[in-house]
Design brief:
CATH topology of the largest domain: FAD/NAD(P)-binding domain
Largest sheet: 8 strands, mixed
CATH architecture of the largest domain: 3-Layer(bba) Sandwich
Shape: elongated
CATH class of the largest domain: Alpha Beta
Strand content: 25-35%
Number of strands: 20
Bound molecules: flavin-adenine dinucleotide
Number of domains: 2
Distance between the termini: 5 Å
Amino acid sequence: MTAVHSTRMLVLGSGPAGLSAAIYGARAGLSPIVVQGLQPGGQLTITTDVENYPGFRDVIQGPWLMEEMQAQAEHVGAQMMWDTIVEVDLSERPFRLKGDGGTTYVCDTLVIATGAQAKWLGAPGEAELGGKGVSACATCDGFFYRGKKVAVIGGGNTAVEEALYLTNHSHDVTLIHRRDSLRAEKILQERLFKHHAISTLWNKEVARFVEGEGAAGLVAIELRDTVTGEISQLEVDGGFVAIGHSPATEVFKGTGLDLDDEGYINAQPGTSLTNIPGVFACGDVMDKVYRQAITAAGTGCMAALDAERFLQAADFPVPEDAIAGHPVDPLIEHETVAG
Ligand SMILES: Cc1cc2nc3c(=O)[nH]c(=O)nc-3n(C[C@H](O)[C@H](O)[C@H](O)COP(=O)(O)OP(=O)(O)OC[C@H]3O[C@@H](n4cnc5c(N)ncnc54)[C@H](O)[C@@H]3O)c2cc1C
């Protein structure tokens, strides 16, 4: 026997985008169900200090911020499900999705907020020094390295943009690349090469991230020459891995949802609308430019408002309880079917 949960708005993902969509959806009377996925709270749960989320003068902790967002979403009526979606059928409305334990979710609108994970090198010391000198986000963490020596690892647009961004804080930025030329667009390369604060190290790959005595955080990066095999060390305070991101859209392949060639969801410019009416996308899964908690939260709000307008225009029947001001508990609506 497996459960079936029905809702007017199903939200996939519980990062800033998904939880913001849930808050707005609940307050619009849509009784959203949030499927949290394998990382409840999203990417901010794996960081410590957050200094750029508006509303907090003091430094706050990423996991705390996400607990507060979840508590707010639940407070206004969103239901959290500890589940991960493994099957998606968007061929007709209501849409049908399946969780990894066999639970079925039936929804009039679907908000996809599954995020994108930074790719890591897998080098020794990288995971251990995450947040202690090793980062995958210059916009998020560059400020912590004011006046310090930093390195960026990568050769594409992201790496060059991260290196240029870091010159706002550091006069000593080294770009490390395992080949002897960059993949980044020519205009970005020109800006990089003429910047007085940036130097490049060619044909070098990271052998390991080196921690200082007494758990002092990152102090150097050990490099291996990809041509000669020679080992060297670059002393740095911060190492930024910039080798790309993987949007969490594997489960949508073959469903008819329009993805770009990197797997990001294509949303109509300035909206959260996808190519499938009733399906909305928000946060890092549809944004490869900004990738911030505040932009994810902003697009999450847009997705909920777009979903609400879609339901209004589609003239979907509104449950009696919702009209009376008592949002329908989607878990009460569930039916039980043979599995
Ligand atoms: C180390 C680190 C530090 C950062 N620091 C900052 C910072 O200081 N300031 C800032 O603004 N930004 C920061 N960011 C970036 C910020 O975390 C992201 O931009 C933001 O979390 C994106 O939000 P999101 O909701 O789109 O996705 P995510 O936070 O990635 O959340 C995705 C959610 O989708 C769920 N999910 C995935 N697949 C499925 C599925 N199949 N079924 C159900 N659920 C699924 C996951 O479990 C997760 O809950 C940082 C990122 C990292 C990695």
